[in-house]
Backbone:
């Protein structure tokens, strides 16, 4: 049930990164979820998708990364600087 | 497109833990002992608090922060026993309190004139386990009308708690509840857990609970 709070916090941190990096958009976020983190994975994924459907993160994909212990952290943010294609 | 991957590695609970540390600092500065009461719904948290306020308010300076989700009921009950009650701002459906809500609640309390603070968390044995509120300790309340395997079903909660209040012991003759098994189950996940055996209804076991609270506020305030 607390997965939504956690997803919102992940979204808040990701939005901060987006702003700090002055990137145009977020393509993906990687979230480390420990096996003892007390997080129900399917529920968390669902909540993350909801958070990632809204600006400024709209369109970003959530990647859940298995981790040991009770680790729960935003591992990486993949941003798009919005420049022209190579 | 210029795509790059930024390593963040930020803990999701980092902000809450920062706010909890600030709450803890404020409480320590004012010499307030704060306990975070956690339990499943219906374990008797509110009645235990009512009895505690009835017995000790006047002797000790006590405040309560309560986090009932949908109703004013707990707040109304507690307000009959204390003038120092803060209802945390809890949005409908929330499953736990967080440190920012407690920090905001502290703003409306005169900490300098307080000795003891109870934070009555949302009734839920899962979610509140993950949120540090800046308390001195978590106290898990569970009752003999629940299963004695509760500590095994919700190990995280029993692991993060320092104390357990086993409530409704007046009902022991009427329910199938193995007290020894319950305590053994709890100690299996947390050997250091200290138990109180109470009936908030009849008052049995409450003197030990009150004495414990007295020892917690015996410290001189730290100025």
Residues:
């Amino acid at each position: 049930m607390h997965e939504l709070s956690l997803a919102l916090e992940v979204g808040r941190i990701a939005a901060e990164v987006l702003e700090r990096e002055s990137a145009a958009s977020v393509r993906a976020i990687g979230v480390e979820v420990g096996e003892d983190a007390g997080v129900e994975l399917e529920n968390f994924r669902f909540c993350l998708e909801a958070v990632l459907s809204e600006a400024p993160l709209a369109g970003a994909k959530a990647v859940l990364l298995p981790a040991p212990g009770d680790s729960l952290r935003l591992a990486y943010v993949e941003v798009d600087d919005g420049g022209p294609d190579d | 497109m210029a795509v790059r991957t930024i390593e963040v590695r930020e803990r999701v609970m980092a902000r809450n833990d920062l706010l909890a540390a600030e709450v803890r600092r404020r409480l320590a500065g004012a010499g307030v002992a704060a306990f975070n009461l956690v339990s499943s719904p219906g374990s008797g948290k509110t009645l235990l608090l009512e009895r505690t306020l009835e017995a000790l308010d006047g002797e000790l300076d006590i405040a309560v922060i309560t986090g009932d989700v949908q109703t004013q009921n707990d707040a109304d009950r507690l307000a009959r026993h204390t003038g120092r009650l803060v209802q945390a701002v809890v949005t409908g459906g929330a499953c736990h309190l967080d440190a920012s809500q407690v920090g905001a609640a502290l703003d409306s309390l005169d900490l300098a004139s307080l000795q003891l603070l109870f934070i009555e968390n949302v009734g839920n044995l899962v979610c509140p386990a993950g949120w540090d509120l800046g308390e001195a300790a978590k106290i898990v309340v569970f009752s003999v009308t629940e299963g004695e395997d509760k500590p095994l079903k919700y190990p995280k909660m029993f692991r993060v708690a320092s104390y357990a209040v086993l409530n409704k012991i007046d009902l022991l003759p009427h329910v199938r509840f193995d007290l020894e098994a319950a305590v053994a189950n709890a100690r299996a996940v947390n050997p250091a857990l200290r138990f109180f055996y109470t009936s908030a209804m009849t008052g049995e076991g409450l003197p030990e609970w009150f004495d414990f609270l007295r020892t917690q506020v015996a410290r001189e305030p730290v100025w």
Summary: The mean pLDDT of chain A is 93.
